[in-house]
Fold these 3 entries.
Entry 1:
Amino acid sequence: MKKILQIIKKITLIPHILVYYYSWNKSDIDKDLNRWATAKNIQKSNTGLLLHFLAVSPDFRTLFYYRTRSLTSHILNLYCRKQNNFTIDVTTKLAGGTLTGHPYCTILNANSIGENFYVNHLVTVGEVNGKRPTIGNNVSIYTGAIVIGDITIGNNVKIGAGTVVVKNVPDNCVVVGNPGRIIIK
């Protein structure tokens, strides 16, 4: 019965395929799909992956609707809802390959976020006095971390659970604590 319901849901998601194929951001969506497929160990075509993740993952739908911002996406969101407690600010430049780990109550409000970004739940990336962070490639931010202000997070950085980052972090570091301190460089 569950499989039949998933098939019906995937049929209702077919308009999303058209949005995907005509999206100006298709290459970033492809990177997201490949990253998610690798993490979940699923092998399908990009169209099959798109239908699968749209059907089973509200956080992927949030990412998809962010990448395909249009009137059509808003209409599709009416019957295939995104995750309402995962927010990506429309002015944030978010590169491809983004992966989420059930981002309940997560806010992404940065100048830019690089490729292969991973974010977990209860994370805040935000502004202080109108100034927002810039995050490099291959960055992972874990549960409950806060990254705020006019700071730069380098490439290949891991920010541990509960860490509060208010200062720049160079490349290839692990940051933990409150206030955040580099433990591996």
Entry 2:
Amino acid sequence: MIDVTDHKGHPVTRGRVDVNGTRLHYVTAGEGEPLVLLHGVPKSWYYWHRVIPLLTEHFTVIAPDIRGFGDSFRPAEGYDMETIADDIAELVEHLGHRQFAVAGEDWGACFAYALAAKYPDRVTKLSFGDSLLPGHGLEDWSHLTAENMRAGHFLWHVSFFHVRDIPEMLIQGREELFWSTWMKNETYDPGAITDDCVREWTRTSSAPGALRAMFEVYRSTFRNIELMDQWSAQPLTIPVLTVGARYFIGQEVARRMDPLAKDVSYAELHCGHSMALEKPAELARTLTTFFLN
């Protein structure tokens, strides 16, 4: 892991706090209105390390490790979208902020949506990056079909990670090879997944209980579908920016969000699935424009 600083060269501040029955690790940096950044699988706050210095001139950035990931604790349960949204809401309040904006990618986008749906009085704006929600496309793209194969939409890992114990058995001891291969395959520029990223996510995913915790996110899919059935009945009224990677989800992210929110815009980046690593400057400009206006 390389040292991460704000726009003035000051190191990010690290901390841990007990919230909602677990302990979360987080970093903060910058000044201005709070902006929460939520990562996906198998990542940690470090996914945002190239973007953070580009945002801190305008925002107080809060980048937690989701429960079970990074250096956060790995409880036995609580990996559904609602529980994780509660985690983040408590963390942000602990840090002294009642209202905040939130940006997420991959599963972090799902958790960000859950925050906006459950806490409409607290979340001011949402950026939903390159993901599909349970019950709203995630399972469709995980099916082995000729159409999904032709379109490059076959998200095979959704079903694989849902199976209990088998992914842990096959990946344990091979974390570096598995995660680096998988993440690079999802990028347009595999060189964006640099050695420091691979080392960091190998370290955190090799910790006791880490693989189980990651896969519990996928094993919560049917609970998440129930939650989505509840939340989707009341479309979001806050501004929502969908951000698609041209060589991954692309415009599908906007099509899937349209029924779930009343004010949806779309931006597309010329990259694959790891937008904050492949196009950090472009992503930072896109987020800054959206959240400041």
Entry 3:
Amino acid sequence: MHEILGRKRKMNNPIDICCAYLYIISRYGYPPPVEDTVSHIREMAGLGFSSIELEGIGKKNIEYLFKHKNTIKEALEQYGCKVPILCLVLPQLGADLDAAGEAECLELFEMGCETARFFGAEGVLDNGPLLPLQYPANMPVMRHYSGSEIDSLRPLSASRWERYWEELADRYRSVCAIAARYGLDYHLHPCEGSLTPSTDSFLFFAEAVGAPNLMFNLDTANQFLIRENLPLSVIRLAHRVKYIHISDNTGQQAGHLPPGSGNINWKIFFSVLREVGFNGRLAIDVGGAETQIEDLDAAYLETAQWLRQQWSSDLSVKL
């Protein structure tokens, strides 16, 4: 394992640099074959990371991780890795569900939480609830929901909105309670096509849900693309952010670029992180089909080194 160390600072824990699952997605597509999870662990460990994301994308993958959790945990131990955040992708959670559909979603979510706890995770993560549109039955699970196909879908009926919002908040209250029973935070990732793509929308939703373990997974590229002021978001969300996805963006189109390849003002961003006393985790989230990167391995390793330089010169940063 590689270890990047700076000078010591009087803090309880060093900032943890995590390899986001986008590294694997960039190599093998979305979703990557869950049957190769052990190989994915070996690849991220071989790159030098001891802190990694894993992901259960949809019902089949969540069930696979649960069924094979012993084998996967053995691989984590073999390669000296930990999984601080397990991603559980269940877009149906935000749908206009009947009682049976909701029960199935909550059962899958709890299965994912049990798996996450077994791996020693601190939290689980999913995209924010999708916009309540009339999706086709064969709609694939996607990283971002945008484009002409989404724009052509009708929303739920206007008369249904208020009841839907109340049911949605109640469902996510239940989800957060399940996560809390396993000692987990529940992080919502901002993406196109969700109800919580911005600081304002997340805070509005978090107030409706009213769960202390509901967190915001600040994604610097996604937030910059929608013209969020990242330092101000850090200030407003300080008590709701424990996990940040780090990548750059030009502000012109979707992309998860290596830092320094876009237009984010990182100096101010990290200055504000230190100001609010952030001591959570940073995940390198570079790549994806929308981002052309010639050498993905180099991009991750160079970003890890760059993160060390950006953080306080007297703070230990562990890879």
